[in-house]
Amino acid sequence: MTLGTMGLSNTLLVMALLLSGAASMKSQAYFNETGELPCHFTNSQNISLDELVVFWQDQNKLVLYELFRGKENPQNVHPKYKGRTSFDKDNWTLKLHNIQIKDKGSYQCFVHYKGPKGLVPMYHMSSDLSVLANFSQPEIMVTSNRTENSGIINLTCSSVQGYPEPKEMYFKLKTENSTTKYDTAMKKSQNNVTELYSVSISLSFSVPEASNVSITCVLQLESMELHSLPYNIDAHTKPPPARDPILWIAAVLIMLVILCGMVLVPFLTLRKRKKKQPGPSHECETNKVERKESEQNKKRVQYHVPERSDEAQCVNISETTSGDKSTTHF
């Protein structure tokens, strides 16, 4: 066989190998878990890893992992993938850890033979990775803006932290004789960082009076349905009345007025009683006036006593004089 013939044969062999691995394989992974990117290289010739160069890249040509002649080469790995991969040599599978929504897309694995004249392509395979995140179980809640005894009930249903976007969300009302589907506009929001969805729907409807009602919320995904716990309304039991915030505020104000009255009435009564009773200052003033009057009376008494004493003395003197006269007379 000539050299040209051998070169042509090798070229055809490489093309056949590349075409055999050209089919794309689909795989799934869950948010924050581990995904697998296969590379079904059979290595029928038992070529040593020391003679091979194996690497994976994403749809943007960013390298996830590279095995250069049996040794990992992190220098060519993009920063967003560093520390997130591990290579299973037995199954020729690359594991991508901590999967995020933005990791979904197409990936390729390449196997090259490292010969004396450079790299020779031996195998190539593509895989499409889809990422899922489980929505929470739908939850029904009764809103508080229902008018009491109106027979109308308002419901909301919500489910959070899921991916991809659900197809639809609806209420299913079941009575003894019928089942009715209520389609409403689904409100959705998406987190800017995680790219996960949160969805909700609302419904207002009249509650039948003569039958039991069971209400379920259904979230329709691509491959499955999620159901809420049923919200049951008994025919003999009306839906719980909504709490009117105005009534609650009025009740609180009335209670405050009553409490203030209970505190203030005894206080005011005690204060009035104290005003009626003479206080210490009034008693002191009264005592001062009485003392002043007493002193004035004492002064008057002291002033008149000497006069009476003089009169008495005058009387005594006169009596003594007359006495003396009489004595002289004898």
Automatic annotation (TrEMBL):
Residue ranges of the TM segments: 246-268
Subcellular localization: Cell membrane
Top-level taxon of origin: Eukaryota
SUPFAM superfamilies in alphabetical order: Immunoglobulin
Keywords noted in UniProt: Adaptive immunity, Cell membrane, Disulfide bond, Glycoprotein, Immunity, Immunoglobulin domain, Membrane, Receptor, Signal, Transmembrane, Transmembrane helix, Ubl conjugation
CC annotations in GO: external side of plasma membrane
Position of the signal peptide: 1-29
Primary subcellular site in the record, as a coarse category: membrane
Polar residues compositional bias, start-end: 315-330
Official protein name in the record: T-lymphocyte activation antigen CD86
